[in-house]
Amino acid sequence: xxxxxxxxxxxxxxxxxxxxxxxxxxxxxxxxxxxxxxxxxxxxxxxxxxxxxxxxxxxxxxxxxxxxxxxxxxxxxxxxxxxxxxxxxxxxxxxxxxxxxxxxxxxxxxxxxxxxxxxxxxxxxxxxxxxxxxxxxxxxxxxxxxxxxxxxxxxxxxxxxxxxxxxxxxxxxxxxxxxxxxxxxxxxxxxxxxxxxxxxxxxxxxxxxxxxxxxxxxxxxxxxxxxxxxxxxxxxxxxxxxxxxxxxxxxxxxxxxxxxxxxxxxxxxxxxxxxxxxxxxxxxxxxxx
Length: 289
Description:
Blueprint: H1 6-10, H2 17-49, H3 56-62, H4 64-85, H5 93-123, E1 128-129, E2 145-147, E3 153-155, E4 170-172, E5 180-181, H6 182-217, H7 226-249, H8 253-288
Antiparallel strand pairs: 1-4, 2-3, 4-5
Helix pairs in contact: 2-4, 2-8, 4-5, 4-8, 5-6, 6-7, 6-8, 7-8
């Protein structure tokens, strides 16, 4: 009895190659648009949360998502080149070296982003209560914002300060201008750990993809390592889907949308791997006769 894997799910698409390619490139285009949305969100959060002259480390931390997205797009591009766009003969000389350099840069960016998610989540534990503030109208028109959730910030003004449902006590991090109430702080911590877990699982998934690419490049389709690699990938993809459902069920549809887009983006790479294996095994079988 064959184990269920992502490969077994996607293989039927190989019978409709044109449809498969349209779906794949539509997903890639959506990922690029999605990158622009997150970069814009980081830019707005940077202007809302950090005070002028904040340390560079804090600035980089605020743009962890943008860095993460750029690195992941680069990695998808590399995997597309390796598993579909370039022939085996193309991997010589400067091409191989360039791919290695870009891959290292992407993994540095991904690793930094995972670090950024971890630091951001741990930073919530260092928030301190804002002394003497029992009502948001006390800090109105001071260039300060209220953090509404893990994404949204709203400037506190005389016109809107009485309309917020947030209540004291309020908390803030050192060096930041925004404040947050206790329920939102707890919510942000919980979702922060989902971010950390998600980033960690993705690192494991791409490590397993790297192993599969190396095995297939060596024509080791019958390797004992290949089957457990595919089973583990399927399990971890399941964890990524669970994370997407968590975001969707906690009123973060954009996070759920983003998570499913990246899953589909890497399933496009999985489809490339399946097609590559199918073509190569046919070539080897023909050569053996």
